[in-house]
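User: Predict the structure for this protein chain, please.
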Amino acid sequence: MSLWIIILTIAVFLLGISLTYIGIRIPRFFPSEVVANWTKTKEFLISAWIIILLMGSVSYWLNLINAFVCAFYLAMIWMMTDFVFWIVHKIFHTTFQHYYAGWTAIIIGVIALTIGWILNHYVVQTNYTLSTDKDISSLRIVMFADVHLGATFDAEGFQKHLKKMEKQKPDLITLVGDFVDDDTTKEEMIKACKFLGQIKTKYGIYFVLGNHDKGYYGAAHRGFSLKELLIELKKNNIIVLQDETVPVGDSFYLIGRKDFSEVVERKRERQSMEKLTAHLDKSKYIIVLDHQPADFKNQAKSEVDLVLCGHTHGNQLFPFNQVGKWIGANDLVSGYEKRNKTNFIVSSGISDWAIRFKTGTKSEFLVIDIKKNQ
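Assistant: Here is the predicted structure, written as C-alpha coordinates:
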Protein backbone atom coordinates (compact mmCIF):
# COMPACT_ATOMS: atom_id res chain seq x y z
CA MET A 1 0.00 0.00 0.00
CA SER A 2 2.89 2.38 0.75
CA LEU A 3 4.08 1.91 -2.86
CA TRP A 4 0.70 3.08 -4.16
CA ILE A 5 0.84 6.11 -1.86
CA ILE A 6 4.26 7.02 -3.28
CA ILE A 7 3.03 6.57 -6.85
CA LEU A 8 -0.09 8.65 -6.17
CA THR A 9 1.96 11.42 -4.55
CA ILE A 10 4.35 11.57 -7.51
CA ALA A 11 1.42 11.53 -9.96
CA VAL A 12 -0.32 14.44 -8.19
CA PHE A 13 2.96 16.40 -8.10
CA LEU A 14 3.58 15.86 -11.83
CA LEU A 15 -0.01 16.74 -12.65
CA GLY A 16 0.29 19.98 -10.72
CA ILE A 17 3.45 20.94 -12.60
CA SER A 18 1.86 19.97 -15.94
CA LEU A 19 -1.33 21.98 -15.49
CA THR A 20 0.58 24.97 -14.13
CA TYR A 21 2.93 25.00 -17.11
CA ILE A 22 0.08 24.66 -19.62
CA GLY A 23 -1.85 27.41 -17.84
CA ILE A 24 1.11 29.79 -17.98
CA ARG A 25 1.66 29.11 -21.70
CA ILE A 26 -1.94 29.35 -22.95
CA PRO A 27 -2.03 33.20 -23.10
CA ARG A 28 0.87 33.13 -25.59
CA PHE A 29 -1.53 31.84 -28.25
CA PHE A 30 -3.36 35.18 -28.12
CA PRO A 31 -2.01 38.36 -29.79
CA SER A 32 0.38 40.18 -27.47
CA GLU A 33 -1.55 43.44 -27.76
CA VAL A 34 -4.68 41.65 -26.51
CA VAL A 35 -2.93 39.95 -23.58
CA ALA A 36 -1.33 43.28 -22.60
CA ASN A 37 -4.79 44.59 -21.68
CA TRP A 38 -5.62 41.60 -19.46
CA THR A 39 -5.33 41.66 -15.72
CA LYS A 40 -3.57 38.76 -14.01
CA THR A 41 -6.94 37.56 -12.77
CA LYS A 42 -8.44 37.56 -16.27
CA GLU A 43 -5.39 35.77 -17.65
CA PHE A 44 -5.68 33.11 -14.94
CA LEU A 45 -9.42 32.62 -15.48
CA ILE A 46 -9.11 32.28 -19.27
CA SER A 47 -6.32 29.69 -18.90
CA ALA A 48 -8.26 27.85 -16.19
CA TRP A 49 -11.44 27.64 -18.28
CA ILE A 50 -9.55 26.34 -21.32
CA ILE A 51 -7.84 23.68 -19.18
CA ILE A 52 -11.15 22.69 -17.56
CA LEU A 53 -12.78 22.42 -20.99
CA LEU A 54 -10.00 20.26 -22.41
CA MET A 55 -9.67 18.06 -19.30
CA GLY A 56 -13.43 17.68 -19.09
CA SER A 57 -13.69 16.63 -22.74
CA VAL A 58 -10.99 13.97 -22.42
CA SER A 59 -12.51 12.78 -19.12
CA TYR A 60 -15.91 12.45 -20.78
CA TRP A 61 -14.62 10.38 -23.68
CA LEU A 62 -12.10 8.34 -21.69
CA ASN A 63 -11.80 8.97 -17.95
CA LEU A 64 -10.11 11.33 -15.51
CA ILE A 65 -6.88 9.37 -15.19
CA ASN A 66 -6.40 9.42 -18.98
CA ALA A 67 -7.06 13.16 -19.00
CA PHE A 68 -4.20 13.45 -16.50
CA VAL A 69 -1.96 11.35 -18.77
CA CYS A 70 -2.77 13.56 -21.76
CA ALA A 71 -2.04 16.72 -19.73
CA PHE A 72 1.30 15.33 -18.53
CA TYR A 73 2.44 14.36 -22.04
CA LEU A 74 1.35 17.66 -23.52
CA ALA A 75 3.23 19.59 -20.81
CA MET A 76 6.37 17.43 -21.16
CA ILE A 77 6.46 17.87 -24.94
CA TRP A 78 5.59 21.54 -24.59
CA MET A 79 8.56 22.14 -22.31
CA MET A 80 10.86 20.50 -24.84
CA THR A 81 9.54 22.48 -27.80
CA ASP A 82 9.78 25.73 -25.82
CA PHE A 83 13.38 24.87 -25.03
CA VAL A 84 14.20 24.05 -28.67
CA PHE A 85 12.66 27.28 -29.94
CA TRP A 86 14.51 29.21 -27.24
CA ILE A 87 17.82 27.67 -28.42
CA VAL A 88 16.97 28.60 -32.03
CA HIS A 89 16.22 32.14 -30.91
CA LYS A 90 19.52 32.43 -29.04
CA ILE A 91 21.63 31.02 -31.87
CA PHE A 92 19.98 32.70 -34.85
CA HIS A 93 18.50 35.75 -33.06
CA THR A 94 15.16 34.87 -34.63
CA THR A 95 11.95 36.37 -33.32
CA PHE A 96 8.79 34.40 -34.08
CA GLN A 97 5.63 36.34 -34.84
CA HIS A 98 3.37 33.52 -33.69
CA TYR A 99 3.68 30.98 -30.89
CA TYR A 100 5.01 28.19 -33.08
CA ALA A 101 6.50 26.31 -30.12
CA GLY A 102 3.02 25.85 -28.63
CA TRP A 103 1.45 24.71 -31.90
CA THR A 104 4.37 22.33 -32.47
CA ALA A 105 3.87 20.88 -28.98
CA ILE A 106 0.18 20.28 -29.62
CA ILE A 107 0.84 18.56 -32.96
CA ILE A 108 3.61 16.34 -31.55
CA GLY A 109 1.51 15.60 -28.46
CA VAL A 110 -1.47 14.47 -30.55
CA ILE A 111 0.79 12.28 -32.70
CA ALA A 112 2.54 10.74 -29.66
CA LEU A 113 -0.74 9.96 -27.88
CA THR A 114 -2.26 8.56 -31.08
CA ILE A 115 0.69 6.19 -31.41
CA GLY A 116 0.32 5.31 -27.72
CA TRP A 117 -3.36 4.56 -28.28
CA ILE A 118 -2.54 2.27 -31.20
CA LEU A 119 0.23 0.46 -29.29
CA ASN A 120 -2.22 -0.18 -26.47
CA HIS A 121 -5.16 -1.37 -28.57
CA TYR A 122 -3.36 -3.23 -31.37
CA VAL A 123 -2.07 -6.56 -30.05
CA VAL A 124 1.10 -7.91 -31.68
CA GLN A 125 2.70 -11.33 -31.56
CA THR A 126 6.14 -11.57 -29.95
CA ASN A 127 8.22 -14.69 -30.63
CA TYR A 128 10.88 -16.32 -28.48
CA THR A 129 12.93 -19.43 -29.24
CA LEU A 130 14.68 -21.09 -26.31
CA SER A 131 17.08 -24.02 -26.46
CA THR A 132 18.11 -26.51 -23.80
CA ASP A 133 20.54 -29.38 -23.35
CA LYS A 134 17.83 -31.45 -21.66
CA ASP A 135 16.47 -34.44 -23.53
CA ILE A 136 13.07 -33.06 -24.43
CA SER A 137 10.62 -32.96 -27.29
CA SER A 138 9.84 -29.58 -28.81
CA LEU A 139 7.12 -27.50 -27.15
CA ARG A 140 5.24 -24.44 -28.36
CA ILE A 141 3.64 -22.24 -25.70
CA VAL A 142 1.28 -19.36 -26.35
CA MET A 143 1.41 -17.11 -23.29
CA PHE A 144 -0.51 -13.96 -22.46
CA ALA A 145 -1.33 -11.94 -19.36
CA ASP A 146 -3.26 -8.93 -18.10
CA VAL A 147 -6.47 -9.21 -20.09
CA HIS A 148 -8.37 -7.03 -17.59
CA LEU A 149 -11.50 -8.04 -19.45
CA GLY A 150 -13.60 -5.05 -20.43
CA ALA A 151 -10.78 -2.51 -20.26
CA THR A 152 -9.63 -2.56 -23.90
CA PHE A 153 -11.87 -5.25 -25.36
CA ASP A 154 -14.98 -7.22 -24.39
CA ALA A 155 -15.45 -10.98 -24.61
CA GLU A 156 -15.99 -10.88 -28.39
CA GLY A 157 -12.83 -8.83 -28.84
CA PHE A 158 -10.99 -11.31 -26.64
CA GLN A 159 -12.22 -14.14 -28.85
CA LYS A 160 -10.67 -12.47 -31.92
CA HIS A 161 -7.28 -12.43 -30.19
CA LEU A 162 -7.73 -16.06 -29.15
CA LYS A 163 -8.31 -17.08 -32.77
CA LYS A 164 -4.97 -15.49 -33.72
CA MET A 165 -3.32 -17.48 -30.94
CA GLU A 166 -4.95 -20.70 -32.05
CA LYS A 167 -3.53 -20.23 -35.57
CA GLN A 168 -0.06 -20.62 -34.02
CA LYS A 169 -0.94 -24.26 -33.22
CA PRO A 170 0.22 -24.14 -29.58
CA ASP A 171 0.93 -27.26 -27.58
CA LEU A 172 -0.39 -25.41 -24.55
CA ILE A 173 -1.72 -21.98 -23.65
CA THR A 174 -0.82 -20.19 -20.43
CA LEU A 175 -2.74 -17.22 -19.03
CA VAL A 176 -0.53 -15.63 -16.39
CA GLY A 177 -2.91 -13.60 -14.24
CA ASP A 178 -5.27 -10.62 -14.26
CA PHE A 179 -7.85 -12.19 -16.53
CA VAL A 180 -10.54 -9.99 -14.96
CA ASP A 181 -10.67 -7.03 -12.60
CA ASP A 182 -13.19 -5.02 -10.60
CA ASP A 183 -14.86 -3.50 -13.66
CA THR A 184 -15.46 -6.83 -15.42
CA THR A 185 -19.11 -7.88 -15.53
CA LYS A 186 -20.26 -11.41 -14.75
CA GLU A 187 -21.80 -11.80 -18.19
CA GLU A 188 -18.53 -10.88 -19.94
CA MET A 189 -16.52 -13.11 -17.60
CA ILE A 190 -18.70 -16.14 -18.39
CA LYS A 191 -18.52 -15.56 -22.17
CA ALA A 192 -14.74 -15.04 -22.08
CA CYS A 193 -14.22 -18.27 -20.13
CA LYS A 194 -16.30 -20.12 -22.73
CA PHE A 195 -14.29 -18.64 -25.62
CA LEU A 196 -11.00 -19.49 -23.91
CA GLY A 197 -12.11 -23.06 -23.32
CA GLN A 198 -12.89 -23.56 -27.02
CA ILE A 199 -9.26 -23.13 -28.10
CA LYS A 200 -7.70 -26.38 -29.30
CA THR A 201 -4.29 -27.35 -27.89
CA LYS A 202 -2.33 -30.54 -27.39
CA TYR A 203 -1.85 -30.27 -23.62
CA GLY A 204 -4.52 -27.81 -22.50
CA ILE A 205 -4.94 -24.30 -21.11
CA TYR A 206 -3.40 -23.30 -17.77
CA PHE A 207 -4.15 -20.30 -15.60
CA VAL A 208 -2.67 -18.66 -12.51
CA LEU A 209 -4.30 -15.86 -10.58
CA GLY A 210 -3.14 -12.26 -10.60
CA ASN A 211 -3.77 -9.58 -8.01
CA HIS A 212 -6.84 -8.19 -9.84
CA ASP A 213 -8.55 -11.55 -10.40
CA LYS A 214 -9.57 -11.71 -6.75
CA GLY A 215 -11.17 -8.26 -6.84
CA TYR A 216 -10.29 -5.36 -4.58
CA TYR A 217 -13.83 -4.13 -3.89
CA GLY A 218 -15.66 -7.39 -3.21
CA ALA A 219 -18.04 -9.61 -5.19
CA ALA A 220 -20.94 -7.15 -4.88
CA HIS A 221 -19.05 -4.52 -6.87
CA ARG A 222 -18.51 -6.59 -10.02
CA GLY A 223 -21.28 -9.13 -9.59
CA PHE A 224 -19.24 -12.31 -9.14
CA SER A 225 -16.82 -13.76 -6.64
CA LEU A 226 -13.42 -15.37 -7.07
CA LYS A 227 -15.10 -18.72 -6.42
CA GLU A 228 -17.53 -18.13 -9.29
CA LEU A 229 -14.65 -17.20 -11.57
CA LEU A 230 -12.82 -20.42 -10.70
CA ILE A 231 -15.99 -22.44 -11.30
CA GLU A 232 -16.42 -20.95 -14.78
CA LEU A 233 -12.77 -21.55 -15.66
CA LYS A 234 -12.89 -25.18 -14.54
CA LYS A 235 -16.25 -25.68 -16.27
CA ASN A 236 -14.51 -24.80 -19.53
CA ASN A 237 -11.58 -27.18 -18.89
CA ILE A 238 -9.13 -24.43 -18.01
CA ILE A 239 -6.68 -25.79 -15.45
CA VAL A 240 -6.15 -23.41 -12.53
CA LEU A 241 -2.85 -23.85 -10.67
CA GLN A 242 -2.37 -22.43 -7.18
CA ASP A 243 1.01 -23.52 -5.83
CA GLU A 244 0.64 -26.73 -7.82
CA THR A 245 2.80 -28.72 -10.21
CA VAL A 246 1.55 -30.78 -13.14
CA PRO A 247 3.39 -32.85 -15.76
CA VAL A 248 3.09 -31.75 -19.38
CA GLY A 249 3.76 -34.58 -21.78
CA ASP A 250 6.82 -36.69 -21.00
CA SER A 251 9.42 -33.93 -20.88
CA PHE A 252 7.98 -30.99 -18.96
CA TYR A 253 6.64 -29.80 -15.62
CA LEU A 254 4.41 -26.78 -15.21
CA ILE A 255 4.38 -24.97 -11.86
CA GLY A 256 1.61 -22.46 -11.20
CA ARG A 257 2.21 -20.14 -8.24
CA LYS A 258 -0.16 -18.19 -6.05
CA ASP A 259 0.23 -14.49 -6.72
CA PHE A 260 2.73 -12.44 -4.73
CA SER A 261 -0.17 -10.23 -3.58
CA GLU A 262 -1.16 -13.08 -1.26
CA VAL A 263 1.97 -12.26 0.71
CA VAL A 264 2.28 -8.46 0.46
CA GLU A 265 -1.40 -7.47 0.46
CA ARG A 266 -3.31 -10.26 2.17
CA LYS A 267 -0.60 -11.34 4.62
CA ARG A 268 -1.00 -14.97 3.64
CA GLU A 269 1.58 -17.50 2.55
CA ARG A 270 2.50 -19.18 -0.66
CA GLN A 271 4.84 -22.10 -1.15
CA SER A 272 8.49 -21.36 -1.74
CA MET A 273 10.26 -22.36 -4.94
CA GLU A 274 12.30 -24.80 -2.86
CA LYS A 275 9.19 -26.70 -1.78
CA LEU A 276 7.55 -26.56 -5.19
CA THR A 277 10.59 -28.09 -6.89
CA ALA A 278 11.82 -30.42 -4.12
CA HIS A 279 10.45 -33.66 -5.57
CA LEU A 280 10.68 -32.89 -9.27
CA ASP A 281 12.84 -34.78 -11.74
CA LYS A 282 15.33 -32.06 -12.69
CA SER A 283 16.15 -33.82 -15.94
CA LYS A 284 12.78 -32.58 -17.20
CA TYR A 285 12.18 -29.03 -18.36
CA ILE A 286 10.51 -26.98 -15.61
CA ILE A 287 8.27 -24.00 -16.45
CA VAL A 288 6.94 -21.62 -13.80
CA LEU A 289 3.88 -19.39 -14.16
CA ASP A 290 4.08 -16.48 -11.71
CA HIS A 291 1.99 -13.36 -12.30
CA GLN A 292 4.40 -10.86 -10.73
CA PRO A 293 8.11 -10.79 -11.64
CA ALA A 294 9.22 -10.42 -8.05
CA ASP A 295 10.99 -13.65 -7.05
CA PHE A 296 13.74 -14.07 -9.63
CA LYS A 297 16.47 -14.72 -7.06
CA ASN A 298 14.74 -17.77 -5.60
CA GLN A 299 13.56 -18.99 -8.97
CA ALA A 300 17.08 -18.87 -10.38
CA LYS A 301 18.38 -20.58 -7.25
CA SER A 302 15.89 -23.41 -7.72
CA GLU A 303 17.27 -23.92 -11.27
CA VAL A 304 13.93 -24.02 -13.02
CA ASP A 305 14.29 -23.60 -16.76
CA LEU A 306 11.73 -20.93 -17.62
CA VAL A 307 9.65 -18.40 -15.67
CA LEU A 308 6.73 -16.60 -17.33
CA CYS A 309 5.31 -13.41 -15.78
CA GLY A 310 3.04 -10.47 -16.55
CA HIS A 311 1.66 -7.79 -14.19
CA THR A 312 3.92 -4.86 -15.12
CA HIS A 313 2.18 -3.84 -18.39
CA GLY A 314 5.73 -3.02 -19.45
CA ASN A 315 5.45 -0.02 -17.09
CA GLN A 316 3.56 1.32 -20.03
CA LEU A 317 4.30 5.05 -19.97
CA PHE A 318 7.59 6.54 -21.20
CA PRO A 319 9.79 7.78 -19.50
CA PHE A 320 8.72 5.73 -16.47
CA ASN A 321 9.29 2.30 -18.05
CA GLN A 322 11.99 1.20 -15.65
CA VAL A 323 10.64 2.74 -12.44
CA GLY A 324 9.24 -0.59 -11.19
CA LYS A 325 12.69 -2.14 -11.47
CA TRP A 326 14.51 0.87 -9.98
CA ILE A 327 12.36 0.88 -6.83
CA GLY A 328 12.60 -2.90 -6.45
CA ALA A 329 8.94 -3.70 -7.13
CA ASN A 330 9.82 -5.78 -10.23
CA ASP A 331 12.87 -7.84 -11.12
CA LEU A 332 12.23 -7.23 -14.83
CA VAL A 333 9.77 -4.86 -16.49
CA SER A 334 9.35 -6.64 -19.82
CA GLY A 335 11.22 -8.82 -22.27
CA TYR A 336 13.83 -11.53 -21.70
CA GLU A 337 16.59 -12.08 -19.18
CA LYS A 338 18.67 -15.08 -18.14
CA ARG A 339 20.03 -15.64 -14.65
CA ASN A 340 22.27 -18.66 -14.21
CA LYS A 341 20.36 -21.50 -15.88
CA THR A 342 16.92 -19.87 -15.70
CA ASN A 343 15.21 -18.00 -18.54
CA PHE A 344 12.82 -15.22 -17.54
CA ILE A 345 10.21 -13.68 -19.82
CA VAL A 346 7.89 -10.86 -18.75
CA SER A 347 5.03 -9.90 -21.04
CA SER A 348 3.87 -6.29 -21.26
CA GLY A 349 0.32 -7.62 -21.38
CA ILE A 350 -2.43 -8.02 -23.93
CA SER A 351 -4.46 -5.09 -22.58
CA ASP A 352 -4.34 -2.40 -19.89
CA TRP A 353 -5.98 -1.64 -16.58
CA ALA A 354 -7.02 2.03 -16.50
CA ILE A 355 -4.63 3.96 -18.74
CA ARG A 356 -5.55 3.69 -22.42
CA PHE A 357 -2.12 4.55 -23.81
CA LYS A 358 1.14 2.62 -24.09
CA THR A 359 3.86 5.10 -24.96
CA GLY A 360 6.82 2.98 -23.93
CA THR A 361 5.77 -0.56 -24.77
CA LYS A 362 3.15 -2.55 -26.70
CA SER A 363 0.25 -4.93 -26.18
CA GLU A 364 1.31 -8.46 -26.98
CA PHE A 365 0.84 -12.18 -26.71
CA LEU A 366 3.88 -14.45 -26.78
CA VAL A 367 4.72 -17.51 -28.84
CA ILE A 368 7.54 -19.40 -27.14
CA ASP A 369 9.24 -22.35 -28.84
CA ILE A 370 11.36 -24.61 -26.64
CA LYS A 371 13.75 -26.92 -28.47
CA LYS A 372 16.56 -29.32 -27.65
CA ASN A 373 20.05 -28.28 -28.67
CA GLN A 374 21.28 -30.22 -31.69
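The chain has a mean pLDDT of 91.
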